[in-house]
Amino acid sequence: MSNVYQQHGAFSWAELMTTDPEAAKSFYSKLFGWSMKDMPMEGMTYTVLGPSPEQQMGGLMQLPPESEGCPPHWGVYVTVDDVDSTAETAEALGGKLLVPPRDIPNVGRFCVIQDPQGAVLAAITYAVPDGE
What we know:
2 helices; eight-stranded mixed β-sheet
């Protein structure tokens, strides 16, 4: 892959899950000058953000119902060649799957892993666009 962020093992995306997406958009756009673009998705709006519309580096969204009781937080994604294999390996190494592998339409496949010490991150295998 030519994009360094889509190579196995690279940190590739940051994501804010929050109780107030509109307040978060206002805060971060004023704090860092980030560009914000709402992307309607099934049952929700996902906001893509970055230093410019051409440089997207993360997103933000409403905390989903399954995260009830969890405080607003930033998470990171690490690119992997095969998210299903990564999930299996994480469990074999003593980690826990908080979200088993699942698809994100038009984006790829991800899972959320908790390491044996309790730290959490997501692993993602990006979909390859048609023609590549």
